[in-house]
Design goal:
This protein has about 100 residues and is mainly α. The chain has five helices and no strands. The protein has two domains: about 1-40; about 45-98, no CATH class. Helix 1 (about 5-10) packs antiparallel against helix 2 (about 15-40).
Length: about 100
């Protein structure tokens, strides 16, 4: 994804969520650039493990939203909107009953 494409995509986002998204894209772009410049190689096993972890968390998140009690869904959304970090959100999702 080019920086111009990412910036134009994010131009329509407004408010705190848009700012947060712009910061994450900027960080991702700078991380990608540093990796390419340093010629570092990420092992495919690491990428696969990370993918599986995120996939599992996404499935759990969708399960909570689809089948959870209204109060649990509301609590989760409030927690996410409170500005919790990705790690805190992941921990919150993991702690939810299945």
């Amino acid at each position: 994804m080019s920086a111009q494409f990412a910036a134009s995509d994010l131009g329509s986002k407004e408010g705190l969520a848009g700012d947060k998204l712009r910061r994450k894209v900027s960080l991702a772009e700078s991380s990608f650039g540093a990796t390419a410049v340093d010629n570092q190689i990420v092992p495919s096993e690491y990428i696969e493990t990370e993918f599986q972890n995120y996939h599992s968390l996404l499935i759990q998140l969708l399960g909570i939203i689809s089948h959870g009690e209204d109060k649990d869904v509301s609590s989760m959304i409030s927690f996410i909107r409170s500005g919790a970090s990705d790690r805190q959100i992941f921990d919150f999702i993991k702690d939810q009953p299945r």
